[in-house]
């Protein structure tokens, strides 16, 4: 929590949030607890809406290309 210098308004940061490539989300889908998201149809639909981030094709998400989820 803090006070913005320009307007004097309160600022609150959520420590549970972060900015990352979408591959970060996809990595969690490999876990046992994420069995709902292991479907290839779900993965294809996700990638249609959120294209692979740069560097494209760098095998950041090998579990997608190898069909592990």
What does this structure look like?
By secondary structure, this protein is mainly α. The protein has a domain at 25-69. The protein has helices at residues 22-28, 40-49, 62-65; strands spanning 2-3, 10-11. Strands 1-2 form a two-stranded antiparallel ribbon. It is elongated. The chain contains 3 helices and 2 strands. Strand 1 and strand 2 form a beta hairpin.
Structural descriptors:
mainly alpha, 2 strands, 3 helices, 69 residues
Question: What's the structural blueprint in terms of helices and strands?
Answer:
Elements: E1 2-3, E2 10-11, H1 22-28, H2 40-49, H3 62-65
Antiparallel strand pairs: 1-2
User: What integer is the average pLDDT?
Assistant: 69
Sheet-strand content, in percent, reads: 5-15%
Structural class: mainly alpha
What overall form do the CA principal axes indicate? elongated
Distance between the termini: 39 Å
Q: What's the total number of strands?
A: 2
The DSSP helix count reads 3
* Radius of gyration over C-alpha positions, nearest whole angstrom: 17 Å
Q: Which stretches are poorly predicted, pLDDT < 50 over at least 5 residues?
A: none
Helix content: 25-40%
Largest beta sheet: what is the strand line-up? 1-2
The biggest beta sheet reads: 2 strands, antiparallel
What are the secondary-structure elements, in order, as H or E? EEHHH
